Amino acid sequence: MNHHNEAREKEIRGLAAAALIVAIYLLPLFLLGENAHVRIHDNLDSNVGWYKVLKESGQIAGSLDAVIPQIINGLPRNAFGNEFNLLIWLHYFLPSMTAYAISQTIVRIAAFAGMYLLLKTHVLKGKDALWINIGTALCFAITPFWPSGMLSTLGQPLALWAFLNIRKGKNTWREWAVIILLPFYSSFVLGFFFFLAMVFLVWVYDLFRCRRVNVPFALSLFIMALLFVCIEYRLFLSLVLTEEASSRNEFLASKLELPRTIRLVFKNFLIGHNHVMTLHTLVILPVWVYAFWFIRKAESGLRRFFLLLMLFNFLLSVWYAFWFYKGWQPVKDEFSILKTFNFARFHFLRPLVIYVLFAVGLYILLKRQGIWRGFVYKCLILQILVLFAFNDEVVYRVWKQPSFKEFYSEPLFDKVKSYIGKPQQTYRVASVGLHPVIAQYNGFYTLDTYNNYYPLEYKHRFRKLIEGELSKNRQLRNYFDHWGGRCYIFADELGKNYMYTKDLDIKIKNFSFNTKAFQEMGGDYLLSAVKIMNAEENGLLLEKTFHSPESPWKIYLYRANYRAVNGGAL
Fold it and tell me: I need a surface site. Which of 88, 118, 121, 328 has the fewest CB within 10 A?
């Protein structure tokens, strides 16, 4: 009994230490507030701003044909998340940065709990694996995941723990609570479609092996899938009911030659992907190599599990890379779903697989005894240090990126708003050298946007504004024509950089802009982060320049000169 109590106390101490480390990791978000540095790509430049726009539109629960007038003269409401997504409600009731910090906390707690329960219950059950289980769960919980994905990837261990428990006949309220609640804080298309496909294959395997239907297991899969369909009804109904072509219909992803595809296989396997960053290269990869070296001396079940999981890990990278192989394109052209839905995201399973493999590899080395025991614990500490080094506050401060407050620069844009002096819904703007979401966050009605789902007809109309610049730059032309998610005012001289801070002192010398088409779409002003030297040739008049010591931006406000356009000066 005393031995049991000691083991329990040891576990509690370990869990408390892990909780403290997670709290330290999250501390900058709460201490610094809007002065904190957080991810910009596919975060501040998009989702965070969208939540604020959606909140202020009054269309959170809008009808299926509702539009958000603030964006592109009426962006379909269905382009945003669903009203059953709890992250949207966090942003509705709380300031953006507060909602962001709380969301980070929820996700990391669930990630730790899920990975720890999964490892302890189904992978490494021995008492000697306690510190490996806690350490691996801690590492998994502080990976730099994609914030707007919520629990789409970091919630997978918790879901797998629940499914495997139900599979084994353990049907308590905890398992069913996980199955029912997770869909409200995760995305079907950004993680759980691929996860449920994997779990379904486990059910099929059991069906053929045992020749009987595991009803509770099948029911749990069905319930979670049904919940996702109901919660994300906007997505599914827009795919089924909408006849209007969207920007996704022109996606051309499969364009890599075979050598580049093979390089991408190994790049993904060794380094990973930006949206599911695992940071496994420096520490975890060597652990796999050492574990593989000693694999013959490992217990047979553990050996088989490690090798099968490693094969699955590699095949996920193969699938990801070959999704972009140009040989796929004829098939994608035949079946539009292969263009509008990104099946490459099966690699979103890799964070789960990589960290389970990390734990198993460490356990194989732990069993070697001697110096390997110390090596195991040093690897855990090193991986934690690597992850802390990639904390957003560290990375984006070192890269001299704007903080949350600086990025949106509300006081600066209030000056622009006051100078224009008209209700914002009465005029339209677009941005140059600046993410459109900044203007959107500050209440401006924009003709440009970053969205993966908007009418294809609008994309073609918008292209007329920038066709002169696209004709100069093949990279930008392919980027817009074959994807178009960033419906931006591109400039050849700026390239694919959308954050020109005032310290760069960049100028556009030869800008080709279709101001007449801009007028026809309702455009009035350009908010440019750089000076346009030939603005008058384009029918653009510099109204005023705005800057402040607290903002990284310098805004050149250009007004479309309709008299020059209509008078033939262009």
Answer: 121
